[in-house]
Write a structure and sequence with these properties.
Layout (H helix, E strand, L loop, with lengths): L1 H26 L3 H13 L3 H14 L6 H14 L3 H14 L6 H14 L9 H16 L6 H29 L12 H15 L6 H17 L3 H21 L6 H15 L2
Amino acid sequence: MKRLLLFAFVAVSLLSGCMNEYNKVYKLSDQSYRYEYAKELYARGKYQSAVTLLQDLVVVLKGGEHAQECMYMLGMAEYNLKDYETAATYFRKYYTSYPRGTYAEEAAFYAGESRYQGTPEPRLDQTLTVQAIAAFQEYLDLFPDGAHRSMAQERLIALQEKLVKKELLNAELYYNLGTYFGNCTSGGNNYDACIVTAQNAIKDYPYSDLREQFSVLIMKSKFKLAESSVEAKRLDRYRDAEDECYGFINQYPDSEERKTAEKYIEVCKKYTKE
């Protein structure tokens, strides 16, 4: 028990000593000393303490010899603290303020990486994903032969797939809503919305691995649309659905949904051959 109490006393004393030292440095007017202390904190992984000093120093040192390093280090400290939005802001500010600066390439890359790390799952709003894509594209435009070129390209592919997945979830939602018209306006239809969403996704992301899934939704939606049509539109829609099924089989002959397409064709023929 005595040893535990002694250990606790020593730990508290050391912590108190560190805090007292930090407070003294924070209040100093010697900016060079404060900056070196902030660098030491950063090197030791004391990012939160470093950020507090650097946020003040980045203003004080503006235009001086340490201004660039200070801003870049502030961005990296925020990045390591996982405050990705703030980090991205500092990185972007760096390479727009110092386009030929020592850390310009790194800042441009980490502006994208910060956005990337903050992107949400596909079901949520993808505004940050779009921003991350723009940031990585800007990095590649500014530094086409940069050290992080391969990683930036990999990130772009991953981010685009996230957008594609979002579109797939949207298309699936419309399909699952089916004939429910509570969310439709101006005579709209959920199956029509599914078809348009899926077709646009195939057009916008022609190399996506999810193309077949979009095609399945288009085929099924066209068939369901024909099934639920009024008499005046039924024949044309069954013809459209039949054509879509044949097109699907030609494009994906080994698909697990081939049997579904063949079954749809048999139903469509009952109407199209009359």
